[in-house]
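Bumping with the actual sequence this time:
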Amino acid sequence: MAKHTYKFCFGPWNISEGQDPYGPPVRPPQTFDWKLAQLKKLGFDAMMFHDDDAVPDIDSKSETQIRKEAKDLRKRLDGEGIAAEMVAPRLWFAPQTVDGAYTSNDPKCRRYAIDRSLRSIDIANILGTDILVLWLAREGSYIRESKNARHCLERLVEAFDKMLAHDKKIRLAIEPKPNEPMDHAYLPTIGHALAIAQLTRDSTRVGCLIESAHAILAGLDPADEIDFAMAFGKLWSLHLNDQNGLKFDQDKPFGSNNLRVAFNQVRALERNGYGQSGEYVCFDVHPFRTTKTAHWLKHLDNSRRTFLSLVEKARTFDEQKAQQLIADRNYQDLDQMVIEHLMGT
């Protein structure tokens, strides 16, 4: 197994105040500056950005203003030794995207979504990242009869093609999720994301971002999804977290719910050499709503610590013995071997 040093990342939204659909925030809001200052203290190397994390109130600003604020942020990041891992257009908040963004039935709303995505690409260029993450949050339907799924896929390809034409270096990393906020999404899995890439003007620049919880919500194993994406050379970013079954998207700390599933994700990253081309390990995790302000950053620190511990577990796993058990089809002892290795016995 390749033994390299991983680089870590999180986004400002991962220091959340605890609001959920059933209750208000339980921790006082903190500024972006405060969140940025915590990054290096916790041993992280980069920050993920939505377009309006980088340029607040982006829809109210001119292109000149957007570029100026992005350049100012780049100077701050460079001064503090922090990289921008990716930029993502936050399309699901805008009133124009109530009925979808790229797949809206309203052509003016589709135009808005594409224009904002192109501005996000400009921001990514200024911040020094070539990854535009597309979480297609509202690209789906609640009522099947309200949209033609074939036409919507064609609209997605049209939008992707315009982004690819806007900049010759940008890479589109599609982040699939099977549901929430939509009843059903048009690109629910990594397989769908990599399939639609083949319809674009440059499939080599359309890849994916895997999130552990999203794979689990689709009834899939995140480690298998990692192997699948990396077989295509298309895993360009990664959101590690955990999930307790087929519920709402929980974004629990990595390894919090199922340590063995987390272990296998790390093994998949290790055997595929993830990170050796500069990719980051990002934790899209949130503190439990019950978390006190004094413990606000523990979910990030704990996720990183768990990941590094599992890297050591993956690298010390007796692969030769495992292969002997596999050759003998002795999966009972292989199962116990994994359990005892994780238990340290």
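The tokens above came from a reply further down the thread. Residues 8-299 form a domain with the TIM Barrel fold (CATH 3.20.20.150).
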